[in-house]
C-alpha cells in the first residue's frame, strides 16, 4: 500500500513538471525569419572581415617592430667612419620601417639638417599609413555592427506588432515568436561583432603607437648623430 502511494505521488510529480525546452543557435537563427537571417549573415561576414584584418595587421605590426638592438650602433659606426655605402647596404638588408627611415636620412646626408628631418618625416608618414592599412575598417565595423543589429531589432518588433494587429484580438506566442526571435538574435549578434571589432581596433592602435614611438626614437637618434660636432 505504501509503495503504491509513493508511485502515485511520483507519477503526479512527473505529470506536474514542465518539460524544459532547449533551443540551439541554429534553430534560434532559423526561427528569426528571412529578414533576421539576412542580417545575421551580414553580421557574420563583418565578423570574419574583422578577424581577418586583425590578424593580418597584428602580424604586419609585429614584423615591423622587430628591429635588431645593435642596428643603430652599426649605423653610427658606419656614418662616423664615413662608410655611407655600408650604412645604406645595412638598411637595405633590414626590412623594417625604422631601417627605411634611416635609409632616407642617409640618402640626404650632405644637405641641411632641416631638409634631412623633413625627408624622414615624410617617409615616416608613409610608413604610418602602411601600418594603419585597413585598421579604420575595424572602427567602422565596431560602430556599424550594433546599428545593423538594432535594425534587425526594429524589423522584428515591426513584424511582431504586425502579427498582433492581424491576430483578431487573440494573442498567441507562437505567432509572435518569429518577430521576437528576429529582434533578440540580431541585437545580440550585432553587439558581439561590435565588441570584438572595437577591442581588436584598440589593440591594433596601441601596437601601432609603439612602432611609431620606436620610429621617432631612432630617427631622433640618427639626427643627433648628424648634429654631433666632428
Automatic annotation (TrEMBL):
Primary location: membrane
Domain MotA/TolQ/ExbB proton channel: 95-216
Keyword Transcription: no
Transmembrane segments: 34-55, 135-161, 181-201
This protein's UniProt keywords: Cell membrane, Membrane, Protein transport, Transmembrane, Transmembrane helix, Transport
Membrane topology: Multi-pass membrane protein
GO cellular component terms, semicolon-separated: plasma membrane
GO biological process terms, semicolon-separated: protein import
Location of this chain's protein in the cell: Cell membrane; Membrane
UniProt cross-references to InterPro entries, sorted A to Z: ExbB/TolQ_transport, MotA_ExbB_proton_chnl
Family: Belongs to the exbB/tolQ family.
Name the UniProt record assigns to this protein: Biopolymer transporter ExbB
